[in-house]
Amino acid sequence: MSFMGHCFRGIDEVPLRIAQERGETLAAHHLPRLGAGKRVSGEVPPSPFEALFVGRADHDRLGDLLVPQVLGRLLDFGRIRCTGLVGADFSDRSGPVTSSYGEALVSVGASRLVLLHLGGDTLGTDLIDGYRSAAVGEEAERFESLAMIAGPEVLVRYVQRRSGQISEFAYVLEPEGDFRGAGLVFHAAGLSPDFAVGGASGAKLVSALRAAEFVGIR
Question: What are the start-end ranges of the E strands in the chain?
Fold first, then answer.
């Protein structure tokens, strides 16, 4: 079965249906959401699918930190990691530990990898603007110092080297290069109002969306 059939079979009913298929029961009298139901019988075989959650989980904002927590409980993956342009640890406030794309690539171990984009209006965010927003502390100062003396091409190469991102987009990770063969999913996708859909960047983004196995629109 494909990861689409395994993980997206009516998201609202995923926990219940998975339990039924595995011969388990749920310790809840209603449809469980966000972990409300607890499995009480049967061994749970590990899911063969590993997910990289792609999005602004590298930002210290409540909404960006909450989305991966919600999806992680609704979907059935053997392992879930959050990725973004920079690494960040928000575990002190019950948030995710986020790795950069390059760091995530080093630790990829699943034979069935899914690149699941978390949604929001981030799809059209370019690499430079995204990194400027995500970087903090000394790295932010280093980047801004470079931006004062270097042109866009130098900045792009710097961000690509620091983040491991090869795309011109900050939060679109495509199944190319070392990620080739991974599944591609967009959850609650959206664009900022000022994104030029008709330009060259728009054509590249549309191409990525067409290559996806699932696209959810906000």
Answer: 49-54, 79-84, 88-89, 97-100, 112-117, 183-189, 214-217
